[in-house]
Amino acid sequence: QVQLQESGPGLVKPSQTLSLTCTVSGGSISSGGYYWSWIRQHPGKGLEWIGYIYYSGSTYYNPSLKSRVTISVDTSKNQFSLKLSSVTAADTAVYYCARDPGIAVAGTPGWFDPWGQGTLVTVSS
Amino acid sequence: QSALTQPASVSGSPGQSITISCTGTSSDVGSYNLVSWYQQHPGKAPKLMIYEVSKRPSGVSNRFSGSKSGNTASLTISGLQAEDEADYYCCSYAGSSPYVVFGGGTKLTVL
Lengths: 125, 111
Description:
The complex is a heterodimer of chains A (about 120) and B (about 110).
Chain A: E1 3-7, E2 11-12, E3 18-25, E4 35-41, E5 47-53, E6 59-61, E7 69-74, E8 79-84, E9 93-100, H1 102-106, E10 119-123
Parallel strand pairs in A: 2-10
Antiparallel strand pairs in A: 1-3, 3-8, 4-5, 4-9, 5-6, 7-8, 9-10
Chain B: E1 9-12, E2 18-23, E3 35-40, E4 47-50, E5 64-69, E6 72-77, E7 86-95, E8 99-102, E9 106-110
Parallel strand pairs in B: 1-9
Antiparallel strand pairs in B: 2-6, 3-4, 3-7, 5-6, 7-8, 7-9
């Protein structure tokens, strides 16, 4: 079964760029049929969708973060990545990667399964 | 402020049924049968419980069911068990921009 694992620095300084990678095992990103997503959760708060990428490189971002977000894919490593620039304390959150199987099942993105375990990123000097 | 509105908390006794509502708009919940629900226990990643409004992934108990009417979706948990105590989030596809919207989450307490 497909498993996802986030990795990256747990501490980022204000104004710098947050960089995380999600490694996919048990399935190939390049097989198509799925969107690969980043979602975050501020401490004690709800979930916020950050964006999607398809294996072809097509990306879709949350309009509220679009100016600072870049999601990329490396099919040779079976990984996809998140970069969030100009971070502030408000970007402190647990960051999850997840697969959206909607395309394969319903012809459109629509839900998230499975999820990675999440990684806490703290923005602080 | 979340795009989808959920009650902050609900509670029920073991064996009872509870329903969590999720209200959106005609641009998200009302337009697409792509509402999903997630269960999150403290310190854990969310787990998919319902997708496409009312479908259950393999392995999810049939005590969990979903429905939708107009701009409001609902998650019903029957035969409440202690292990159901968790946070529940609804989510809807919202078309082109913002694409995906989540609810603010509902804390379920099993009394």
